[in-house]
Amino acid sequence: MGPHPAVAAxxxxxxxxxxxxxxxxxxxxxxxxxxxxxxPPLVLVACSGGADSMALASALAFExxxxxxxxxxxxxxxxxxAGSALRAAEVVTRLRAMRLDPVESVAVTVGREGGPExxxxxxxxxxxxxxxxxHRAAAVLLGHTRDDQxxxxxxxxxxxxxxxxxxxxxxxxxxxGRYRRPFLQLDRQTARKACLVQSIPVWDDPHNTDPAYTxxxxxxxxxxxxxxxxxxGVVEALARTAQxxxxxxxxxxxxxxxxxxxxxxxxxxxxxxxLYVLPPAVRxxxxxxxxIAAGAPAGSLFARHIEEVDRLITGWRGQGAINLPGxxxxxxxxxxxxxxxx
Length: 342
Ligand SMILES: Nc1ncnc2c1ncn2[C@@H]1O[C@H](COP(=O)(O)OP(=O)(O)OP(=O)(O)O)[C@@H](O)[C@H]1O
Known about the structure:
By secondary structure, the protein is of the alpha/beta class. The protein contains 12 helices and 10 strands.
C-alpha cells in the first residue's frame, strides 16, 4: 500500500523542488561561491514547529537521501513568548528524530521597526540567511501554503497596492534563489493531514489564532466569509491571481528597465516630457527605480510616495520638493526631475 494521499502530495512537492535545486546548482556551480565541488548539497528547512513546516521537514527527510542531498533544519526562537526557548528545543528534538542533520535553533532579538509582525519577519530572515551562509546550504525551504498565498494577495488588495504586491510570495526568492516554497500550490489542510497520519506532533502558534493580528483575523473570519459568499474555490482563485499578477508585474518591470535610458538626458536626469507620455504603470516603475537608485530603501518606499513624485509630472502646479525615505528628495526643475539624496 502506498502512502496516504496527503503524504504522497507533500513528498511530490518536495521532490520537484529538490530536482529544481539540483538543476540550478549544476547550472551555476561555477558562478555561486557557496557551492563546493564534489560535496553533497545541503538543503535546510526553516521550521517553526507548526503543521506546515513540520510536514515539510518530514517530506524533506524522506526525499533528500534518495537524491543524495543532505537535509538539515533551522528553527528561529523569536523570544516573544514565555517558554519560547523550551519550545524551540522541543522542535529541535523532533527534527533530529526525523534524522535531519544539522539541526539548530537560533535565538534572535526582534526590533520594533514596521510593527511586531514585520520586525519578527526581518529578524527571522536575517537568521535564516546567516544559517544558510554558515552551512553553505544550496537552498532553504519554507512551508508557505496556497492559503498563505491567498491571504497575502488579500492583504495587498486591502492596502490598495499594485500588481507587484498582488503577486504575493514567489516560489523562488532571496539571494541566488536560496528560498524555495514547495507548498505554494498545496492547501494547508493537506500539510496538517500529512502530520496527523504520520503521527507528527505539531505546535499551534497562539499568534495564528489571536484576533489582535490582521492575518489571523483574515484567516479565521475574512477568508471563511469570502468562501461562504463566493464559494470554496476562492483560495485557489486568489493564488492564481498571484501568479497572473506576478507575470504582469515582471513584464512591466522589464518594460520600465528598457525605457529608462530613453527618458534620461545626458547627465542622467529624467526628462518630464518623456515621462509624461509613458503609460502610468511604466512611468511609476521608472520613478520607483530612480528613487531607489538615489538611495531610498526599497522596503520603506510605498505606493503613496511614488504617486506623490508622479504628480510632479502629471499634476504639475509648481509644488515644492518631495521628501522621501532615506533622505531622498525629488523636485522638478526646468523640465527635469531631479532626484537625489540630501
Ligand atoms: N520560528 C521560525 N523558525 C523557522 N522558520 C520559520 C519560523 N516561523 C516561520 N518559519 C518559516 O516560514 C514559513 C511561514 O511562516 P508563517 O509564520 O507564515 O506560518 P506558520 O503558521 O508559522 O507555518 P507553520 O505551520 O509551518 O509553522 C513556515 O512554514 C516556516 O518555513
